[in-house]
Every structure is written in structure tokens, then in C-alpha cells.
């Protein structure tokens, strides 16, 4: 075998090694659906039962979103993950029995009214976060004086002030590492929170966002049995809290459209969190990357950007305004969707939205490879990137845009 033969053999071995080592990741890049048009889904967590300042914040957000329209004439929408209850602190202090103040309680009427108004204006979409943003027995059995004081305070309490690990709803984090909840308790709690959501909003929750993204397959089965259809994920499933209190036990990767125990999985792309430095400029870069890769851009946000500090709330609203304006300016064909609409598109694999021919998928998957980190570096080192670029240029083609119609 000559020098050229040895070189080619070594190159082939290197290419095969890259493919083998990163086979799961490469397979995930290919099997993720490709969307032909830019799509922006805004999600914000923790709203509902809690501080009354939410009422004004919700009205301000609705007014900001109502200024804009996408290519089909629809305004931007924020899909609000709702917490349905906070503790009745004085009642617990009186007799040690846990009781709830739910979102339809008289004291929370301003918050519920603002939420319903945003739903009527079609700038809000509601989805389930949890009955509480915690597992009640975890708090009621806590020996931490700060937790005990939080639990006994006059309602409505703000769960953001709880230790992070205690904000997880679907594990027992009263001690660390956490332990799983019994299946019968999970099923009873899911049935109860779905019934409460239906009573308060008049409809079943179709989308659920697990608090702190810690949940298990048992919880998924209970949600599906209760009528939930979609679960929002960060691209994996964390099933516990470890000894340091951090999410752990990761299962995945999860990609858009995966099915799990009767649910369709959705994946958040990045963040829009002005209070944490992830402002409109950051979110627009995330949108641009998602568009180049054929992904829907699903941005994560939380209510604490808008309710705890007046100056920060003002900045967050200004950044929301800049995000909507910039997204439409940079992507004139942009579509604004609610999470549930994205879920329906993924579940049905709607060909009006999702690209099927492999030649039309190829340029988007190539961009995903370019942003894949270490696999891309190895492809460049071996020359596989240059060869791939030539093949994509020869074989790939851009898809035709879908008709200008709203999602069903």
C-alpha cells in the first residue's frame, strides 16, 4: 500500500470514528424537524397565584405585544405557565394543616382578570406549570426556620424566595439527594391540578411546563391520562435533585416532536431574560441561529423580570418591545405562535410547516452541524467540513415557503 493509500485509510478511520463517537448526537441533528419559515414562540413561567403586582405587569405586557403583527396579521403571544395556588399561611400557622389560596380566590381577582383580558386579546396563551411551584409536604415537614416562616406568611407568597431545590414539584426534596414520589400520590396530585385548571380557566390544560424542569416518566403518564397533550422541556428530563440540590438524573436528549408516554415533547431554544443580561439583542441572535438551523425559536422567560423591581420591569418591557420590533425587521416572514400551536404542528408533522424532502432539509442540518461544537471542530480538522460544504452546495436546495396562513 502506497503513502496515498495509507493516508486515505487513516482518513477513513478518523471519519468513521467521529461518526461512531457522536452517532447519537448526529442522529438527533438529522431527526429534528426542519421548519421552512422563521417562527418565534415566547414562553414565560411562574405567573398566576402570587403577588398582586402581576396584574399590572400582565396588562403592560399585553399592551406591548399588541403593537405588533406578523406576516399573517397576528400579534406576538406569550404562553404563560400558570401556578394555580399559594399557601394559606395564617391557616397553616393556626393548626398545621396545609391549605391553598387558589388563583380564583377573591384576593387574586386582579391577577386573574388581567390574565383573562390578555387571553381575550390573543396575546396570551395559558399552560399549566403546577398546582403549586413545590411539593407541599416537602415544605410542611421542613425544619428550616426560613421555610417555615415563608409558609406561614400572609398570602399571596412569591415562590421565587424559596431555596431552588424546594421549588421542584415532582420529587421529595425534603432531604438531598431527593427521592421519587409514590406513583399514587403523583396521579392524585396531577388529577387535582388538572381539575383546578379546568375550573379556573374553563378548559383542560393541553401544555405543561414542569417546575424547575425536574420530573419523571411517571408524572408524564399521569399528565397524559388526565388529558395533557404536550410537555415543554429543555432538551432533557432531569429526574431528581442531587446531594448539592442541583437537577440531575438527566435523560435524553429530547428533540422537538419526540413522543413520551402519550405526550408530544417540545424543546426550548434559548432565553429572553433581561433581568439576567439576556436581553433583546441576545434573543435576536438566538432567533437568527434557530432560523438558520430550521428550528422554531422557543424563548424562556420568567415573571421575575417584570414584577419585583419597578426599574427592572420598565427595562424588561422595553426589551420585549425591542425584541418584537427587531424580530419582524430581521425576519419579515416571521410567524408568532403559541406553544400549543407549535405542538400541534409537530404532532401532525404538518407539511405546510415542516420540510420533508431530504435535499431541502440538507442546508438546515448542515447549519446545525456547524454549531455542534466538538463534532464540527473534528470535521474541520479532518477536512470533512470542506467536503461536506461542497456536497451540500451541490445537493441541497432551499424549500418553498408555506402559505401565509395561521397555524391550526
Describe the model.
With 408 residues, the protein is an alpha/beta fold. Helices cover 45% and strands 15% of the residues. The strands form 5 sheets. Strands 2, 3, 6, 13, 14 and 15 form a 6-stranded parallel beta sheet that branches. A 4-stranded mixed beta sheet has the order 7-8-12-11, with helices on both faces. β7, α9 and β8 form a beta-alpha-beta unit. The longest helix is centred in the last third of the chain and has 21 residues. It is globular, with a radius of gyration of 23 Å. The model has no long low-confidence stretch (mean pLDDT 93).
Q: Outline of this structure?
A:
The chain has 408 residues and is of the alpha/beta class. Helices cover 45% and strands 15% of the residues.
Please report the total strand number as a whole number. Answer: 16
Averaged pLDDT, please? 93
Helix content: 40-55%
Q: What kind of sheet is the major sheet?
A: 6 strands, parallel
Rg from Cα: 23 Å
Morphology call: globular
Distance between the termini: 61 Å
Q: What proportion of the residues form beta strands (DSSP E)? A: 5-15%
In the predicted model, the low-confidence regions spanning at least 5 consecutive residues are none
The structure class reads alpha/beta
List the helices and strands and how they pair.
Layout: H1 3-21, H2 23-31, E1 34-35, E2 39-48, H3 54-65, E3 78-83, E4 85-87, H4 89-95, E5 100-102, H5 109-120, E6 124-130, H6 136-140, H7 145-152, H8 183-201, E7 207-208, H9 217-225, E8 230-233, E9 240-241, E10 247-248, E11 259-260, E12 263-267, E13 270-271, H10 280-293, E14 297-302, H11 304-307, H12 310-330, E15 335-336, H13 339-348, E16 354-355, H14 358-370, H15 374-382, H16 384-395
Parallel strand pairs: 2-3, 2-14, 2-15, 3-6, 7-8, 8-12, 13-14
Antiparallel strand pairs: 1-16, 4-5, 9-10, 11-12
Amino acid at each position: 500500500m502506497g503513502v496515498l493509500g495509507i493516508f486515505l485509510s487513516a482518513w477513513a478511520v478518523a471519519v468513521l470514528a467521529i461518526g461512531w463517537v457522536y452517532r447519537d448526537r448526529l442522529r438527533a441533528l438529522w431527526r429534528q424537524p426542519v421548519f421552512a419559515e422563521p417562527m418565534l414562540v415566547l414562553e414565560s413561567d411562574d405567573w398566576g397565584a402570587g403577588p398582586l403586582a402581576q396584574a399590572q405587569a400582565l396588562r403592560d405586557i399585553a399592551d406591548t405585544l399588541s403593537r405588533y403583527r406578523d406576516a399573517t396579521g397576528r400579534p406576538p403571544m406569550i404562553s404563560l405557565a400558570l401556578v394555580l395556588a399559594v399557601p394559606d399561611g395564617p391557616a397553616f400557622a393556626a393548626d398545621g394543616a396545609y391549605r391553598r389560596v387558589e388563583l380564583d380566590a377573591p384576593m387574586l381577582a386582579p391577577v386573574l382578570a388581567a390574565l383573562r383580558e390578555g387571553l381575550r386579546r390573543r396575546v396570551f396563551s395559558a399552560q399549566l406549570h403546577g398546582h403549586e411551584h413545590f411539593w407541599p409536604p416537602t415544605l410542611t415537614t421542613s425544619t428550616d426556620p426560613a421555610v417555615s416562616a415563608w409558609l406561614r406568611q400572609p398570602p399571596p407568597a412569591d415562590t421565587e424566595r424559596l431555596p431552588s431545590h424546594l421549588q421542584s414539584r415532582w420529587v421529595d426534596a425534603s432531604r438531598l439527594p431527593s427521592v421519587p414520589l409514590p406513583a399514587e400520590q403523583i396521579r392524585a396530585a396531577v388529577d387535582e391540578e388538572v381539575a383546578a385548571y379546568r375550573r379556573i380557566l374553563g378548559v383542560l390544560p393541553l401544555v405543561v411546563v414542569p417546575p424547575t424542569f425536574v420530573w419523571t416518566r411517571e408524572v408524564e403518564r399521569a399528565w397524559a391520562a388526565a388529558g395533557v397533550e404536550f410537555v415543554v422541556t429543555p432538551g432533557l428530563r432531569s429526574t431528581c435533585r442531587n446531594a448539592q440540590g442541583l437537577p440531575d438524573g438527566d435523560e435524553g436528549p429530547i428533540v422537538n416532536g419526540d413522543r413520551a408516554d402519550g405526550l408530544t415533547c417540545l424543546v426550548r431554544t434559548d432565553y429572553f431574560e433581561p433581568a439576567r443580561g439576556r436581553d433583546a439583542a441576545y434573543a435576536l441572535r438566538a432567533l437568527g441561529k434557530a432560523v438558520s438551523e430550521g428550528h422554531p425559536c422557543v424563548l424562556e422567560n420568567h415573571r421575575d423580570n417584570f414584577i419585583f423591581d419597578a426599574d427592572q420591569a420598565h427595562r424588561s418591557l422595553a426589551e420585549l418591545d425591542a425584541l418584537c420590533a427587531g424580530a419582524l425587521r430581521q425576519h419579515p416572514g416571521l410567524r408568532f405562535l403559541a406553544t400549543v400551536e407549535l405542538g400541534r404542528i409537530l404532532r401532525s408533522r404538518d407539511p405546510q410547516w415542516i420540510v420533508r424532502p431530504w435535499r431541502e432539509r440538507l442546508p438546515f442540518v448542515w447549519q446545525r452541524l456547524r454549531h455542534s461544537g466538538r463534532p464540527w471542530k473534528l470535521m474541520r480538522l479532518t477536512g470533512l467540513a470542506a467536503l461536506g460544504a461542497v456536497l451540500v452546495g451541490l445537493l441541497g436546495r432551499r424549500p418553498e415557503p408555506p402559505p401565509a396562513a395561521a397555524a391550526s
